[in-house]
User: What shape does this take?
Amino acid sequence: MRITLLASGSRGNAILVSSGQTRILVDAGLSAREICRRLECVGIAPDSIAALLITHEHSDHIRGLGPLARRLRLPVYLHTELAGTLKDVGVPSAVHEFDESQELLIGELAVRSFPITHDARCPVGFTVDGPQGKVGIATDLGIATRLVAERLRGCRTLVLESNHDEDLLRDGPYPWKLKQRVRSKHGHLSNRDSAQLLEGLLWDGLDAVLLAHLSETNNCPDLARSVAAEVIAGQNSCSPELLVGRQGVPVEWSKP
Assistant: This one.
């Protein structure tokens, strides 16, 4: 199993999930050229990607969608309520629609989506089940609902949003209206919110936690890490590796 945050933050997001012989991308928030460059930097041939899945339509998640899909001839998976609303999806005939009731079979992987709260058309998180266990991905959500926690239980690897430090956001340079949006139920999880979600997901099969979508203005990696690390240190059922995503360079975890 290999999870690579090719880019993670407010300026662009893309996640590579590899399990068995199948590789998929979740989101394409960088240019197609940059995504391919970063894949090659971590030793992955871009043309080995089996599919591209999109969580929601904000530009930091779809900036490279159309060009990347055409360049790599990728099938693109979009929620039914999102499909047909985007200007460039690559090749329209290669678009596959889904809703939360469906299981998507992509190579050796079984992918399920679940709704999250964010100010987008129909935002979703994903779980990806493969021969080496389950991966859970939940970023860009204002609150962690019971459904979110339920879908993320039993994951071997978790990618969780840890967007902002509450004090840095409060005292930072954002306009008040934007601060309210980030803090709202349709905004982003704070470090503390993320840690609270993580606390309920700890179990003896959890191998890794990757903190994602950190704000470069309202957070810093050491703060995000310390809050999550405190939760992990407060129990003895597991000792997952803790990594923090970065905007400028890939961050990855792998294990046989």
The chain has a mean pLDDT of 97. Residues 11 and 231 are 28 Å apart (CA to CA). The two ends are 6 Å apart (CA to CA). The domain at 2-246 is CATH 3.60.15.10 (Metallo-beta-lactamase; Chain A).
